[in-house]
Structures are given as C-alpha cells and as structure tokens.
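Intended use. Records like the one below are meant for learning the mapping from a protein sequence to its folded structure. Do not use them to infer anything beyond what is encoded.
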Amino acid sequence: MKAGAHDYIIKGNLARLTPAVARELREALVRRERKQAEEQIKASLQEKEVLLKEIHHRVKNNLQIISSLLNLQAEYLKDNQALEVFKDSQNRIESMALIHEKLYQSQDLARINFADYIQDLVTNLFYSYNVNSSAITLKMNVEEVFLVIDAAIPCGLIINELISNSLKYAFPQRELGEICIDFYSKKVNLYTLAISDNGVGFAQYFDFQNTESLGLRLVKGLTHQLQGNIDFSNNNGVKYKIIFSTKL
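Structure written out for the chain above:
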C-alpha cells in the first residue's frame, strides 16, 4: 500500500480478486479519461491564448493602417486647423494601438504594465509634436501598476489629450517648461492620475466644466466612463487630478 497499491488480497481468499481487478480497471479508466480531459483543456487554453494574441496584433495593425491613412490624407490639406485635427485624431488612434501592442507582447493578455505604456505614449507624443526634450522637461512618478484593457484604453486617451494640450498650448513661445505625470495606487483598485505643467495656463475666468474644447470634453467623458472624479486647477500652469477605481 505504501508503494502505491490500491488494494490487497490475503492468501486463501481469492474470491476478492475479480472485483478488486475490476475496480482497479475502472479507476484506471477514470484516471486516463481525467488526464485526457486535462490535456484537452490545456490545449484549448493555449489555442485561445494564441488566437487572442493574434486578435490584439491585428487590431493594432488595423489601427495603425487608419493612422497611416490619416497621415496620407493630411498631405493634401493646406488649412492648419484641419491639419491639427488630423494630427489629434492620429494620436488618439496611436494611443489605442499602443495598448493592443502591449497586450500582444504581454504574458498576461488581460492587463498591461501601465508604467511602460505611459513612457512609450509620452515619448511618441513628444516626437509627434516635434518637442525639444531639452526645452520641456518631463518628470514622471509612475508606479508599476497593471490595468485591465477596459480601464487602460480610456486612461490612455486621457493622458494623450492632456499631454497633447500641454505640448501645444502651455509654452507658446517655446520657452523652458516642465510637464509632470504622477500615477499611483494607495489603495487596492483605487488609482490617482495627476498631470500638470508650469506653462501659461488658461484665462483667469476659464470654466472647465463648460468648456467647448473637444479634448477636455473627451477627458471629462472618459473620466465618467472610468467612474472617476476630476479636479482642475489653473494656477501657475494647469493641473488635473483624476481618481478612479477599477476591478483587476
């Protein structure tokens, strides 16, 4: 029994032999079927993982194709305002494509390392707006946290809008400036995103809640989608602080 036997028969009592062998054969069959089922489940999960990675890869490629089409179309535009609209749309698409790229590369297909994502996103924005990094300093205090895709996409779009606004409007004379990004979690599933700059800010009586700016309206709508709250201050530059919760 210590060696792994499931039954034993005392000499002279062979009447138990037939039912003991029959039971062992049944249990062996059950073990074999269970092992086959486990192998099928494992193979099915691996297949689904490969398919899910392929989906994220194709979504990323399709979004990048759309971005490229916008870029080609922009070459035919002469109006600067229209060009700016195209660039804004292109950056929004790129921010979503980047999330699918991170998911495709990640071992966890449900969540992404948002610290890595923010770094890549902001680097792309600085490049997109041809910003001299020696003129505008970027300060990041970002914890290594992981967000599910349902939270990562709206949060990524919020960062895209706010950083784009700072790069376009905060330093009109290309003077020296600073942009700060803080992203951290002090409680489980509760996140704080703070973005600020020390630029020219808005006019004294700027009404954030009733702004006509598409970008800021998007930020408010995406914050609502995250079921979060946003605080805005306009003093020696601008600062946005967004607190939201999500299920991991």
